[in-house]
Amino acid sequence: MTFNYFDHDLSSLHEQLKGGQISAEELTKASLDNIKQTDGDLQAFLRTTDDQALQAAKSIDQAGDFNDVLAGIPMGLKDNISTEGQETTGASHILEGFKPVYNATVVKKLQDAKAISLGKLNMDEFAMGGSTETSYYKKTTNAWDHNKVPGGSSGGSGAAVAAGQVPYALGSDTGGSIRQPAAFNGIVGLKPTYGRVSRFGLFAMASSLDQIGPLTRSVKDNALVLNAIAGFDKWDSTSVDTEVPDYTKNLGKGVKGMKIAVPKEYFGEGIDPEVAAKVRAGIAQLEALGATVDEVSLPHTRYGVAAYYITMSSEASSNLQRYDGIRYGFRAPDAKNLEEVYTKSRSEGFGNEVKRRIMLGTFALSAGAYDDFFKKAAQIRTLIIDDFNKVFDQYDLIVGPTTPTPAYGLGEEIGDPKAMYMGDVLTIPVNLAGLPGLSINAGFSKDGMPIGLQMIGKAFDEATIYQAAQAFEEASDLLKQRPAIAAAYQGGDK
Ligand code: GLN
């Protein structure tokens, strides 16, 4: 049996499972078979957990409990999300073989909803990167062109969803790592408001910036997954105890009367003309649907990258101290004393990008540099928050590009960290301000690569973002377009 995720969204899968037209086991089997067929080209999965997935599917079929919309439906998890007893590495050598002793809260919530995990998805090492090329294990490719990067750091999640391997995946976003791979693969990716989704069990990169969120093909699917994973968690001291609305509640309401702000800085230097043109066309589309659109200014945008790379590296250098060769994963085999256990395990266990950030962060936090770097970055962060607050006093939504360029070639930027960092210029400010942001496909470049349109909302107002994104999606036929890898589903439907 083949089963085609391109023609069935979560609601349709749910109806079919409930109605008995398909079983969770059949769906799981078909998905695992499809991954075997397509992952040679895509390399999205680090590991599939076939036995556990099939077992879970069988027991859901037996119980016949398909009340939850996600029940019996397969998905994938980024490899920095802890799964009890299942290897979780953050795509780092230093965690090779590490099996967490508990589930992340999001995993627990999805298990309670009877979702079925098919395994763990590739990513940049410890979520540091924008192309998934810093993974210790493998290079994932873009679903639309296997010579191009899938984006990062949630590149495995983005590619797997775009190629139809799974209907949804979870990623994490510290400076753009859900939205950028969503943009590069032409799908929908949401970074929720900071505090909306529990970070408990997510490998900490930069604790004041990290959020887990869903990557899906459609806006409605995204809202359904957020419904399942959002909410207060006593195990995450930064999770916020505010009501979780039904995130599908505004779908279908359109954008009539919605006030949209377009920051002029988001179309400045370094933005590829093709990206600018498609995103401007998308904005015109929203206007035609009844939104009012004004140009605004977010004047401190250009300082975001510098402030982020100082703040993020400082927090990461501290968070990554726990990988000492003793408590988790890899230990250098030839260390002769305690000192060498630390230094050799870390030297051999971490990749170059991770080391670069540990050094930068340790420096920025040192006594002589703290005031000039860490403190300055924190002050800039406040200015960026103020910029957003001013705009959101008058507007419902901010719209612009997600990334300055579409996906580039494998190997093209990995040797030039600064160029790679500049690719985050439009996503980073959203993390610094803790706001929700979504990327949705706005069309394709001349050489067939997707271009992402970003929607930024007020804190805890994901529902308005979804409302606008769904109106945009409905007005276009972009969802109908499929990458060539979709042809792996010979016979198409079941
Ligand atoms: N590309 C950014 C970085 O390398 C963002 C990473 C992320 O969001 N995890 O830091």
Short description:
Heterotrimer of A, B and C subunits. With 494 residues, the chain is an alpha/beta fold. It has 15 helices and eleven strands.
Q: Would you give an account of this structure?
A:
The protein is an alpha/beta fold. It has a domain of 266 residues: Alpha-Beta Complex (Amidase signature (AS) enzymes). The protein contains 15 helices and eleven strands. An eleven-stranded mixed sheet has the order 1-3-2-4-6-5-10-11-9-7-8, with helices on both faces. Helix 5 runs parallel beside helix 6. Bound molecules: glutamine (GLN). Pfam families: Amidase.
Q: What percent of the residues sit in helical stretches (DSSP H or I)?
A: 25-40%
Broad CATH class of the domain at 5-259 and 479-489:
Alpha Beta
Number of strands: 11
Rg, Cα atoms, Å: 21 Å
Mean pLDDT level:
96
Order of helices and strands: HHEHEHEHEHEEHEHEHHHHEHHEEH
Within the CATH hierarchy, at the fold level, what is the topology of the domain at 5-259 and 479-489?
Amidase signature (AS) enzymes
What is this structure's SSE topology?
Layout: H1 10-18, H2 24-42, E1 45-48, H3 50-63, E2 74-78, H4 105-112, E3 116-121, H5 155-162, E4 168-173, H6 179-185, E5 188-191, E6 211-216, H7 219-229, E7 259-263, H8 273-288, E8 292-296, H9 304-319, H10 338-349, H11 352-364, H12 371-392, E9 397-401, H13 417-422, H14 428-432, E10 437-444, E11 450-457, H15 462-475
Helix pairs in contact: 2-3, 5-6, 7-15, 9-11, 9-12
Bound molecules: glutamine.
Glutamine (GLN) is lined by residues 127-130, 153, 173-177, 205, 312, 424.
